[in-house]
Structure formats: structure tokens, C-alpha cells
Design brief:
It is built from 17 helices and 5 strands. The protein is mainly alpha-helical. The strands form 2 sheets. Strands 3-4-5 form a 3-stranded antiparallel beta sheet. A two-stranded antiparallel sheet has the order 1-2. Bound molecules: s-citryldethia Coenzyme A.
Length: about 425
């Protein structure tokens, strides 16, 4: 009768071991009993970049990379993008269920009344150079919030955790907008409580003087959909960074700041910025074949916005974003770079190099075209990723803190350095 176990024979000793299989995994610690001799430390699993390592159990987001499926707490992303809004999805990601009307109204009230930052945060941000990258400003300022809420260190207390989580969700758009205004030399615009979450962000970015800026409803809706699509994505690089840093029981501002800095990288959330720079560099649809050739030569020129560690099919978010492009361009006029992006996709999806490596457009391939059409500068694009991902980071952080199996993250290594040797006085060094 089939058993949920793995029988392993160590050919060094001839011994056989039976390892339990649970949730499609073996426990790495079960390998430690496999020793070549009495003083052997025991077997470890070597997995650089965690390509095949589950570091946690999570109930938040389910992805099926082969089928291109993405669900938040069981709800398909396509349905949430069509029927929900970002704050309702944030409640769902944080709490596991869609809110009742009363729960939703209370959640919105609390978020709305925590959008301000301490005035000293403004002076902190004024120290950045005029041309500072907004992601660098965002990461540093989120970390600085740790100094404003010292009680946040009490990570074991649910009530304290929850208020910090709400503060982070509420203040991220404010700090993001302030970062943008700083780089443009414009005075900061404060949040307005009667505006919705996404409209408020638009106003803090776009308002000039005291003339009430009226954000275009279609653009606000499109950005809200993009926020929904970016809310969480299971154990990606930035979420793993937040979990690992948070495992030392540091406050959530410091842990989320680690997530922001990881997201900043061009292989992760910085890809949407890199895609726009790539499309501008290509410059003309006629130059697409030449660029694809350069990518295939493998001299480290990547087709940015393509490929994914998990999706080996079309990223379901990219499909929704591509549809959203049409709605936005109705208002803003068509972004000519879209033609280059569509031609890149058309060629890549039929080219053996990309097919063999299962490289499809990911969430970052089309999102930048929308952000540019909305008037955001390219270096704000990863910031537009960080705002909605905050609810994913804080929810995954809390799941880690409350998971009895979790403890401080401290991986092992394979030592490849020099063996023990004696100190050599400087006069004897050759
Ligand atoms: C995000 O993890 C998440 O969930 C992330 C994210 C989220 O929501 O949090 O989905 C958001 O980060 C999306 C990804 C955005 N990044 C990019 O678009 C940057 C371009 N993509 C690649 O750098 C790459 O595809 C990654 C980083 C996304 C995934 O890299 P992997 O899984 O480590 O795959 P790999 O680098 O080992 O690539 C396998 C092969 C290699 O070729 P060979 O060595 O086999 O010849 O595919 C090639 C790579 O060179 N390849 C690419 C490519 N991506 C991979 N070749 C050209 N262009 C690309 N974009």
C-alpha cells in the first residue's frame, strides 16, 4: 500500500531512511539523521536562491505557475479586479475574508484617519537631494517610522501589531506622494479625508496650489485595479525579505523597509521602470527584431518584464493590465510605446528561445505604460508597486510572527574557504 514517505539509501553507509512526505515536501531537518559517521553533522539541502525550498506555510495567496492562476484567500484575481476595490482587497488579504459592509466602513475609516505622517517626517525627507530616487526615499522613510512608533517593537501583542499594519497601509501613499513632490520641488499636499484611498494618492501627487485637483475617475479606477493586482504574491523576493528581517522580532516598519529595498531591484519591482527604459531604448517597432536578437545572444540583455520564477505561463495579472491599458488610453491618448511592447510580445511568444525557457510577459511588462500615460515619471513606477504591496508584506509578516513553527531565520552554508592556518606577521608576508 502506497505510503506518504520517501525511502532514502545512503550509499556511503548502506543505511536506509524513511522520510515522511507532508504537503508535497520532506522536512530538511529530517535529512540531518543521515550521517556518514559518528562525527558527521548530517545531511543538509543545498538550494541557492531557494529555487525549491518552502520556507513557510501560508494561507494568503495561491499561485499555480503552470496554469497561470493567482488567488487571494481563494478569490481569483480576475474577479477581484473586476468587482472589488483596493481597500476591500486589503481587508481580505489581511483578515482572510471579504468584509461585511460594517467591517469595510470601519476599515476605511481607520485607514483614512492614519494617512498623515508626523511633521518631523517631512523634515527628515527634506534632507534628501533634489534628485534622490523616490524608492530610496520611500525605503528610508518607512524605516524611519520605526523611531516614531517605539511601541511597535511589541510584535507579540495583536492589537499593537494591527495598528502598525494599518498605519503602514495608510501612510505608504502619503510618503510615496511626498517623495514625488520632493523630487519635483513642489510643496507637499496633505491627505484629504473625504477622498478615497487611491484618489487621495492621485491628489497628493497632482494637486497644484489650492485649486482642488479633480482626479479623472477612469484613471483612479485603473490605478485601483493595478493596486489590487499588486497586493500580494506569496513568497516573492521582497516578501521573503520582510519575513526574514521580521523573524528577528524587529518592529514591522523595519521589516517592511527591507521589503521596499528588495522590491527596488530591477529583477523585481524595479522591472516596470526597466521595461519603460527598454522600450524607449528600442524606440521603434522596426528595431524590435534587432533587440530580440541581442537578448538571444545572451550577453545579459534581458527582455525586461518577461519571465518569472513561478509563472511558466502568461502572468494572469499581465492579462488584466493589458486590458486596462485600453481604458486608460481612451482618456490619455495611446502611448506609442505600446506598439513596441505588443510587437516584442508577439515575436517573443513565437520564438523558440523564449518558448523553451517558458518566458511570458509578467506583471511589470505593461504596467509602466499605464503609469507613464497617467503622467508618473519612470522612477516612480516601483513606488507604485510598493504602495499596494504593503498589505501583502504586513499580512505575511503577521502570519510569520504568529506561526509557532517559525523562529529567527538563520540558514546554514557550505564552507569553501581556507582551512585553519596560523597568523603571519606582516614582515613575513610575501
Ligand atoms: C516581479 O516572485 C514574484 O512573485 C515577483 C513578482 C511579484 O509580484 O512579487 O511577480 C514581481 O518581480 C516580476 C518579475 C519582474 N522582473 C523582470 O521582469 C526582470 C526580467 N526577468 C528576469 O530577470 C527573470 O525572468 C526573473 C528574475 C523574473 C526570474 O528569474 P529566474 O526564475 O531566476 O530564471 P532564470 O534567471 O534562471 O532564467 C532562466 C533562463 C535563463 O536562460 P539560460 O541560463 O537557461 O540560458 O531564462 C533566461 C535566463 O537567462 N531569462 C531571460 C529572461 N528571464 C529569464 N532571458 C531574457 N529575458 C528575460 N527577461
Amino acid at each position: 500500500m502506497a505510503k506518504d514517505t520517501l525511502s532514502v539509501t545512503d550509499n556511503r553507509t548502506g543505511k536506509t531512511y524513511e522520510l515522511p512526505i507532508e504537503n508535497g515536501c520532506i522536512r530538511s531537518m529530517d535529512l540531518r539523521q543521515i550521517k556518514s559517521g559518528a562525527d558527521d553533522f548530517g545531511l543538509m539541502a543545498y538550494d541557492p536562491a531557494f529555487l525549491n525550498t518552502a520556507n513557510c506555510k501560508s494561507a494568503i495567496t495561491f499561485i499555480d505557475g503552470d496554469k497561470g492562476i493567482l488567488e487571494y484567500r481563494g478569490y481569483p484575481i480576475e474577479q477581484l479586479a473586476e468587482k472589488s476595490n483596493y481597500l476591500e482587497v486589503a481587508y481580505l488579504v489581511m483578515n482572510g475574508e471579504l468584509p461585511t459592509k460594517a467591517q469595510y466602513e470601519d476599515f476605511v475609516h481607520v485607514i483614512t484617519h492614519h494617512t498623515y505622517v508626523h511633521e518631523n517626517v517631512k523634515s527628515f525627507m527634506s534632507g534628501f537631494r533634489y534628485d534622490a530616487h523616490p524608492m530610496a526615499m520611500l525605503a528610508s522613510t518607512v524605516a524611519a517610522l520605526s523611531a516614531f512608533y517605539p511601541e511597535a517593537k511589541n510584535v507579540k501583542d495583536r492589537q499593537t501589531r494591527r495598528i502598525q499594519m494599518m498605519r503602514l497601509i495608510a501612510k505608504m501613499p502619503t510618503i510615496a506622494a511626498f517623495s514625488y513632490r520632493h523630487t519635483t520641488g513642489l510643496p507637499y499636499v496633505y491627505p484629504e479625508n473625504e477622498l478615497g484611498y487611491t484618489e487621495n494618492f492621485f491628489t497628493m501627487v497632482k494637486q497644484i496650489g489650492d485649486r482642488r485637483f479633480k482626479a479623472n475617475k477612469t484613471l483612479v479606477k485603473a490605478l485601483d485595479v493595478l493596486f489590487i493586482l499588486h497586493a500580494d504574491h506569496e513568497q516573492n523576493c521582497s516578501t521573503t525579505s520582510t519575513r526574514v528581517v521580521g523573524s528577528s522580532e524587529v518592529d514591522p516598519y523595519s521589516a517592511v523597509a527591507a521589503g521596499v529595498t528588495a522590491l527596488y531591484g530591477p529583477l523585481h519591482g524595479g522591472a516596470n521602470e526597466a521595461v519603460l527604459r527598454m522600450l524607449r531604448e528600442i524606440g521603434d517597432v522596426k528595431k524590435v527584431p534587432e533587440f530580440i536578437k541581442k537578448v538571444k545572444e545572451g550577453n545579459d540583455t534581458k527582455l525586461m518584464g518577461f519571465g518569472h520564477r513561478v509563472y511558466k505561463n502568461y502572468d494572469p495579472r499581465a492579462k488584466v493590465i493589458k486590458r486596462t491599458c485600453d481604458e486608460v488610453f481612451e482618456v490619455t491618448g495611446r502611448n506609442p510605446l505600446l506598439d513596441i511592447a505588443v510587437e516584442l510580445e508577439r515575436i517573443a511568444l513565437q520564438d523558440e528561445y523564449f518558448i523553451k525557457r517558458k518566458l511570458y510577459p509578467n506583471v511589470d511588462f505593461y504596467s509602466g505604460l499605464i503609469y507613464e500615460a497617467m503622467g508618473f515619471p519612470v522612477d516612480m513606477f516601483p513606488v507604485l508597486f510598493a504602495i499596494p504591496r504593503t498589505v501583502g508584506w504586513v499580512s505575511q509578516w503577521e502570519e510569520m510572527i504568529t506561526d509557532n513553527e517559525q523562529k529567527i531565520a538563520r540558514p546554514r552554508q557550505i564552507f569553501t574557504g581556507a582551512k585553519k592556518r596560523d597568523y603571519v606577521p606582516v614582515e613575513k608576508r610575501g
